[in-house]
Amino acid sequence: xxxxxxxxxxxxxxxxxxxxxxxxxxxxxxxxxxxxxxxxxxxxxxxxxxxxxxxxxxxxxxxxxxxxxxxxxxxxxxxxxxxxxxxxxxxxxxxxxxxxxxxxxxxxxxxxxxxxxxxxxxxxxxxxxxxxxxxxxxxxxxxxxxxxxxxxxxxxxxxxxxxxxxxxxxxxxxxxxxxxxxxxxxxxxxxxxxxxxxxxxxxxxxxxxxxxxxxxxxxxxxxxxxxxxxxxxxxxxxxxxxxxxxxxxxxxxxxxxxxxxxxxxxxxxxxxxxxxxxxxxxxxxxxxxxx
Amino acid sequence: xxxxxxxxxxxxxxxxxxxxxxxxxxxxxxxxxxxxxxxxxxxxxxxxxxxxxxxxxxxxxxxxxxxxxxxxxxxxxxxxxxxxxxxxxxxxxxxxxxxxxxxxxxxxxxxxxxxxxxxxxxxxxxxxxxxxxxxxxxxxxxxxxxxxxxxxxxxxxxxxxxxxxxxxxxxxxxxxxxxxxxxxxxxxxxxxxxxxxxxxxxxxxxxxxxxxxxxxxxxxxxxxxxxxxxxxxxxxxxxxxxxxxxxxxxxxxxxxxxxxxxxxxxxxxxxxxxxxxxxxxxxxxxxx
Lengths: 291, 288
Known about the structure:
Largest interface: A-B, 50 and 63 residues
Oligomer: heterodimer
Number of domains of chain A: 1
Order of helices and strands of chain B: HHHHHHHHHHHH
Shape of chain B: elongated
Number of strands of chain B: 0
Helix content of chain B: over 70%
Helix content of chain A: over 70%
Strand content of chain A: under 5%
Shape of chain A: globular
Number of helices of chain A: 10
Structural class of chain A: mainly alpha
């Protein structure tokens, strides 16, 4: 256990240094928020373009504002998805292809799974900072309304923790895949979050998707994570205008999230061992695929 | 024994040689096709469904349907161009820096060809690699999302598309040298030039939605004008006439100027880099 903790702590420290020591702290802070804020702004301007091209009719303003709140808050939680997934699976390719240090780290007597999770921790910390800034920006400058009941704070934090664990587990599954594939960082970084973006109802109610798409969304645990966090944080009148066709019992959704997080954790261990075994067998642990 | 090699032939061979691994790499690593073409489509589909969500309940209005078709088309065209922009950032601008980290740059600098031929080879290979993804995105846009394109001036569309690509890759060639000078910050600069550029260049919406002055300022990125011109030519609806930055002919002329300017600046920055390399001797020092 102490070996795991020590590996996690040192890997997190290493990840943080790699993440931040290339510049001054103030510049790093700006850098960390520009990307997510720009991402949120894309949605804002898409919404503005829509209202410019299709001006709202009388009585539609409240519905449009509710939909906008729904999209904006969904996008804030998505910051965790992109950062955590990328932060986890890119460790294999960064260490293997760019720094070419994977052979040394891999040979050292540390649990490699824990090392990867530790490296991802710094990305999660930066994502948390970016999500808070984006939320505050939305509240103060874009009129986004949020209301979190004090009694619901524990369930909100528990869901946040489980969601992040689930994301790390999915990230490790992708890291296992990275062991045996070429330099696909950008395809994975765009594609896998893109899949969650599409099927988890991050930016639009799940009911907008065709039936088969809704089916896919309903078997991804993150769908329930987004829905639960949004349900806790958005004002109740939002749901007069937005229908997600998902269960509305918060405790039930939290239990679902707990079970699926555990399932993904065990799956990640299994896949990680398989990917590692196949890569060792094929001699791919320290391959470089520079095209 | 010495052999005289024609300079043009040497540079063309160098260009072909550098583009070869990018073209052939796709065939040797079939998973590339899935990761680089099919997966990114999902992200684009999400943006399509945002617009569908906005237009929810307006299906009965034919004018709204026409506007929805245009908005989805904007996303599809933007998604096509994103493929090229990401390739410019990660496989052009950052490439020489990575070549240095991997130890190839010293070999490139010692080889007798022009460094411009090397960059041109990277660009041609990159365009080929990315072209596959762009075609898949466009075909998916038409057949999966049912986007109806109105091709009124095919020659102008082709001219805008290819001049935009030349300008974009010219910009990438220029950035490749500059990134090499900037060292480790380069990676972060590329990361920083994703979402903020998607925003100001209007990859998912008409750039003029940000205001005419911001759109004109963002025109330094060739994708801004290229996208605006392509969208005008492919969605020539009167209902959308107020959302364009400039007429397509003017945009093509500006893109031509940008293409020449970036290629010239790429050559100048490469020359500067070589001088600096000889003077300071740190061009091949890794991890700086």
